[in-house]
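Please fill in the sequence for the structure shown.

STRUCTURE ENCODING:
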């Protein structure tokens, strides 16, 4: 999926990261690390949505709104879109000079899934099944 790039000027990525943290963004273990990525932070929005911002070595940022990582639907690109506009508003709030490189191929609409499938209960159930199977085999 293509993202609009937000280029910041005169402010370090470390400062941008601190601002995002003040705004409620947090680290996440579950993310795809892109080449040149320095940080990736996530902020929960109205359920089931969250905003993900990545900072890159060349000073540009990418942002997306997507289904929460708590659901299998997170893996489907249909349920994510560029959040460059929202990120631009946040940067403007702090007076941070920036430009947004618009791309006509970037997805700006957001589809809502008909159902949400939490993956953690599935993993827990599989764990119980595997553990039970292991214990029953040990008794034989």
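FILLED IN BY: designer on duty
SEQUENCE:
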């Amino acid at each position: 999926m293509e993202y609009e790039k937000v280029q910041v000027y005169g402010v370090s990525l470390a400062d941008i990261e601190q601002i995002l943290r003040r705004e409620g963004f947090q680290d996440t273990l579950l993310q795809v690390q892109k080449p040149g990525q320095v940080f990736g932070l996530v902020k929960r929005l109205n359920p089931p949505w969250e905003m993900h911002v990545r900072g890159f070595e060349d000073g540009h940022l990418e942002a997306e709104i997507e289904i929460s990582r708590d659901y299998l639907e997170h893996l489907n690109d249909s349920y994510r879109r560029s959040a460059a506009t929202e990120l631009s508003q946040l940067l403007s709030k702090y007076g941070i000079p920036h430009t947004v490189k618009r791309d006509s191929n970037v997805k700006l609409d957001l589809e809502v899934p008909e159902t949400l499938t939490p993956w953690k209960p599935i993993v827990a159930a599989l764990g119980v099944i595997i553990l039970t199977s292991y214990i029953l085999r040990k008794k034989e």
